[in-house]
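Quick start: what a row looks like.
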Amino acid sequence: MDIRYSYGRIFSIAGLCRALVFNRKGFSSMILFRRKYGRFHMAETRITIKQFQDVLHDKLIKHGAGEEEARKVSEIFALNAADGVISHSVLRVKRMIGHYDCGTIIPGNKPVLVSGKGAVERYDANKCAGVIAASICMDRACEIAKKFGIGMVALRNANHWMRGGYYGWLAADKGLVGICWTNTRLNLPSWGSLECNIGNNPFVMAVPGKDGQNFVLDSAMSQFSNGKLEVTRRAGKKLPVAGGYDQNGELTTNPGEIERTRRSLPMGFWKGSSMSILLDAAAAMLADGNDSAAIERHMQADNVDESDLCQVFIAIDPEVLGENGFAEVEKSIKASVHEAKPVVEGSPSRYPGERVLKDRAKAMAEGIMVSTDAWDDIQAL
């Protein structure tokens, strides 16, 4: 087993605490964390994607999931991990299993059709696992698009879909344009607010490319997603640009300080804030479900984790309009992005989603590095 240590800058002896941790194979590691900011620098362990998938599959079975559900959920989590999204795969397992244990997820349940007409359908998630419900709904939107040219499925009472980009890839790999988004709890201050009063409401857009080299945007409405803040803090690193405010109301690149104040910066300032509000309104209207404020009230009243979300899945079939010259357009767009003079020599601009397939192939071949404590937590479930 490959064990590594990740150390950030040490600011003061008094602010540090050392704890000795042993994993199941007898390896030991020293975890360092800074009490003041809840920031720590920990040992990492290399695991294979198959190892992660197999362990998660077995844990899901243990906590009530059937074979088909365990296979599908573990497969999606494993692919998300391979694509480099550790925050919404490895680091989400414990919370997701908790949903099975508390009844927020009922094993074997599937989304239920509520209403529909033509190319538009509405479903209730019916306490289905978040990744299962979202996969079913995007697949259904694609089926409708193949018939009508465009398909839209709105989903209410949904559990967390984990990595939204997965569903964009799902559509693009079928040759379709995919658009989807979800609302969330109140976890982002609107522009001009000191407290969280909107969701960061991740938005995904995917356009199919040649040989699977799709354009895929997966973006929260905050400058950095909560998952990115967590991963960066765990690694003992700073954000590349300011991502929110510290206790003094100053912009900061310290992810731990942003997590503590809960004052993330909306992307594009007032623009990201406005986009978040519109995404929330559209999702709640189309799904006939909860807005972000209602989700938060439910969480606080019942002391439960985030659930009962609204999600929208749209697929568009470009072939319905006949022949198009997108192959040449794709070349032009990618060339324009790649050929521009870079700020840093040797680091050209990239189009969204460009690095995913390379990262996936590398992870499948070499495995991934995960924090030892997170891996131990999963194995102990």
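That is the whole record. Residues 3-104+363-380 form a domain with the Hypothetical Oxidoreductase Yiak; Chain: A, domain 1 fold (CATH 1.10.1530.10). The longest strand covers residues 150-158.
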